[in-house]
Amino acid sequence: DAGVIQSPRHEVTEMGQEVTLRCKPISGHNSLFWYRQTMMRGLELLIYFNNNVPIDDSGMPEDRFSAKMPNASFSTLKIQPSEPRDSAVYFCASSSVREAFFGQGTRLTVV
Amino acid sequence: AQSVTQLGSHVSVSEGALVLLRCNYSSSVPPYLFWYVQYPNQGLQLLLKYTSAATLVKGINGFEAEFKKSETSFHLTKPSAHMSDAAEYFCAVSRIQGAQKLVFGQGTRLTINP
To answer: What pLDDT is stored for residue A1 in this prediction?
Structure first.
């Protein structure tokens, strides 16, 4: 398996634009997580899915953020409209039994 | 609720010296505990995990950690530091039952001096 695949690796966008981050989890994993990493706040859990169903989205900062998991092999995190304070590295992780595997992350810069 | 506290955001040791990274957890239920390592511009990689079996857990790259319930600690150690150990290390906790989400500490940046 190629591991958790995230795209794009880098994204630079202008404030106000819509941004969509993509994640392909490891096949067979039933949980998927979206994290955000910044210098100020460290690693924050934004949302996680179990069997494609959102279980806890309490970490989603505001309504501008939304996440979907239409099937077991794909998830998206959308920010609309984007703001400079959304600049961060966004990680997707998938897990089987109590072990999470992380993607390489998407470095988002909003200018 | 669960939480993790990593003592020391930066740790610096000499090559060949002992590495000790501290982690204390808070959990109302028996926890699973993890250490992850993050190299620059990379995702997080699992070093080791405690899942209620042996209290001394051995991981990759010569690291190990000991679960001490009485101290609510799960410190990470390595007898002899190598230059390639320079990275950021994260302690994390999750519940054994129920939700699987990982709660991470703030991370400790390890620097190795030649």
So the answer is: 67
